[in-house]
Write a structure and sequence with these properties.
This protein is α/β, with parallel strands linked by helices. It has 15 helices and 13 strands. It starts with 7 loop residues before the first strand and ends with a helix. The relative contact order is 0.11.
Length: 371
């Protein structure tokens, strides 16, 4: 129930509001904006994983019943029109991720009294990845629509400078800015004794277990390093889990690889860990990579399109390897343990301020108020 229609209204649209980095970032931002007297409506297609948590903090929730995002166009447009007919001081529609952005721009076409912000939380380069002809045609269509439609948004926000430069160049979008995600609460000081961890060789992965996350690349590299006394812990869930478990079984890695499932507590994830590996084919700006550095767990990440290389500050705060290159990753793992590499604390303290929650939220607040 909306109590005060004089407030500024923000509509967040994320089709798949499931557990993950993008949803967590949106949830944090929503909490902040509610504290600053904004009224919030969250729209998803199908079930919203965070429904109860959002309702507790005073959000309005709408779950569109539709089998596909593209079929939700008219329902979404009707919801937006209903919002426009209410007496809000201002209405800002915020869409998240490329295919949702395209749907949003089409749904809002011709509607007045609404400002549209598109957020690119992933990398639009992912549309270049496909498994079959149908997916190729679908991705190509979304890319072409985005290339034409993004210019009609009031603002495009990316969460990495890489993506900002890409969209500026490829889409000729002028109204665009980069705001880093709220990956951490604060920059931590070094606490753990690295001398105690040097013999541990505990490696971790944190994230969704889907094909594009490249976890199989990590397992292939580690299968060639069985002589090392390591333990690899995988934190996350996803459709690739059973395939990954079969690889572990058939490559005699059962004693070295542990599937830990989803774990929200960072202290439990990063405690006593030496090395964090990200092997994604593309990224927006991965919170877990920022968090690994903040917890002084040395990172190795792929040089995939997106924010990976920005987070490790072009190699000053971690190592990178060629995307999907098992041999290159193997070499970087060996280099880390041979050199006993550590995170530079002075560079870390300054660089990670970019990803502090308060700074990110203040930048969003300033941007929204100035729109």
């Amino acid at each position: 129930m909306i109590k005060n229609l004089k407030k500024k209204r923000i509509i967040f649209f994320l089709p798949n509001f499931a557990r993950g980095g993008a949803s967590e970032s949106i949830l944090k931002l929503i909490k902040f904006l509610i504290d600053h007297n904004f009224s919030i409506l969250v729209i998803s297609i199908g079930k919203n994983f965070y429904r109860q948590e959002l309702k507790k903090i005073g959000c309005d929730i709408s779950e569109i019943s539709s089998t596909r995002s593209s079929l939700s166009l008219f329902k979404l447009r009707n919801l937006i029109k209903e919002e426009i007919n209410r007496s809000f001081q201002k209405i800002i529609f915020i869409s998240n991720i490329h295919y949702a952005n395209v749907i949003s721009l089409i749904s809002c076409f011709g509607l007045k009294k609404i400002k549209i912000i598109l957020i690119e939380r992933s990398s639009i380069s992912e549309l270049n990845i496909f498994e079959n002809l149908i997916l190729f045609l679908k991705n190509k269509f979304i890319f072409l629509l985005a290339k034409y439609l993004y210019q009609f948004a009031d603002l495009v926000i990316t969460n990495s400078k890489y993506e900002k430069n890409f969209i500026e160049k490829k889409f000729k979008v002028n109204k665009i800015k980069c705001i880093y995600p709220p990956s951490i609460k604060m920059v931590k000081s070094l606490k753990k004794s690295k001398n105690e961890l040097n013999n541990n060789k505990k490696i971790i992965y944190v994230g969704r277990l889907s094909r594009e996350k490249g976890v199989i690349t990590i397992l292939k590299a580690l299968s060639e390093l069985k002589s090392l006394n390591f333990k690899f812990e995988i934190f996350g869930e996803g459709i690739e889990k059973e395939k990954l478990k079969l690889f572990v079984k058939y490559n005699d890695l059962n004693k070295k690889v542990v599937f830990k499932g989803f774990q929200k507590n960072q202290d439990l994830i990063f405690r006593n860990s030496n090395l964090f590996i990200n092997a994604s084919w593309f990224e927006g700006l991965p919170n877990a990579l920022v968090q690994s550095i903040n917890n002084d767990v040395f990172p190795i990440c792929s040089n995939a399109p997106g924010g990976n290389i920005e987070v490790i500050k072009n190699g000053k705060l971690g190592l990178s390897f060629e995307c999907e290159n098992v041999l290159d990753l193997k070499k970087k793992i060996l280099l880390f343990f041979k050199k006993k590499l550590k995170i530079n604390q002075s560079i870390k303290r300054k660089h990670l301020l970019n990803y502090v929650e308060k700074r990110s939220h203040q930048e969003y607040l300033k941007t929204i108020n100035n729109l």
